[in-house]
Every structure is written in C-alpha cells, then in structure tokens.
Amino acid sequence: MKTILNVFLIFMAAVPLFAKEELKTALEWTPDYEAAVQTAKKENKSVFLLFTGSTWCPPCKYLEANILSSDEFKKFAGENLVCVMVDFKRGGRGPSDPKFADKHNALARQFSIVGFPTVFIINPNTDAKESIVGLKYDNTKDFIAWIKSFIKK
Q1: Backbone angles phi, psi at 110, to 5 degrees
Q2: Mean pLDDT across the chain, nearest whole number?
Q3: Which of the four CATH numbers 3.90.220.20, 2.130.10.10, 1.10.600.10, 3.40.30.10 does domain 25-151 have?
Q4: What is the structure's pLDDT at 95?
Q5: In what order do the strands lie in the sheet with 129-133?
Q6: pLDDT of 35-63, one tens digit each?
C-alpha cells in the first residue's frame, strides 16, 4: 500500500511539469476615453474603443466571449492597445456606467454610433481611425489581422 501511495504522490508531483501552461493575461479596460488617449500617446499604442451592449446584444456577447476574452487577443492588446469600453443599456438607452454617462453619450454622438458592437482603432497621435460595426470577424485571428492592418499604416 505504501508503494502505491508513493507512486501516486510522485505522479501527482510530476503532472504540473507536463501540463500545458495556460496564459493568464488580464486585459485592462477603462471607461475613460480621454485618459486612454493620453496613455496611448505616452506608451506609443493605439486606442481600441468598443461601443457595446454587453448584457443584451448577442453579437456583443459573442465578440466578448469568443474574441476579446481569448488569450491571443489579450496578449496582442496588452502589447499594442489601450482598451476603452463604452457599455450601453438595452436598445442604446444610455450608458451603463452612470459615472461616465455624459462622456459616453458625447462619445456616441462624436463617433456617430448606429449599432452595436462598434469598434474603433484610433491612432492618438494623428487622430486617424478605422472602424467596424457589427460582428464582421468571427474569430480572433482575423480580428487581430484587421487591427494590425490599421496599426501598420
């Protein structure tokens, strides 16, 4: 019995050595667009501005669950983007975050938001921007390729 226990303990100790190490990258989102622009300038990154209906919009939920939450996107974003989330209530009836309601409503007007999700990639040094409305890309690889095509301009 002691031998079986020892073999079991050795096996359990070795399992982590062979297990695939999972990437634990946290993606930081801010609701503050102006602060994000300043950070992006300082860090030489682009601004990723997401207008979403995170609790009610099916394409927004898909984007979050299948692309924005992926380790691949989180790693890419951490290295290249400052991420801003502007979250709206069902039907676009105002921002979800009361603290930023006025600023988020102004952003929605400034960027002429007509649907969710809407994503803007913005170069804070030139104000150049690229956008997509809706769920144009259904996988992380293509979504990142779209962002890279703008960043390289």
Answers
A1: -60, -40
A2: 86
A3: 3.40.30.10
A4: 82
A5: 29-30, 81-87, 46-52, 118-122, 129-133
A6: 999 999 999 999 999 999 999 999 999 99
Q: At what angle do helices 33-43 and 101-110 cross, to 10 degrees?
A: 70
User: What is the DSSP secondary-structure string of 66-103?
Assistant: IIITSHHHHHHHHHHEEEEEEEB-GGG-SBS-GGGHHH
Domain boundaries, the chain: 25-151
Q: What backbone phi and psi angles, to 5 degrees, belong to 122? A: -125, 130
Percent of the chain with pLDDT over 70: 82
Say what the pLDDT of residue 45 is. Answer: 96
* Distant-in-sequence, close-in-space partners of 96: CB < 8 Å, separation ≥ 6: 54, 55, 87, 88, 89
* Residue 153 pLDDT greater than 70, yes or no: no
The answer to whether the bond into 117 is cis (omega within 30° of 0) is yes
pTM, entire model: 0.81
- Give alpha helix (H) positions in the chain: 2-18, 33-43, 58-63, 71-80, 101-110, 140-151
- Tell me the residue type at 56: W
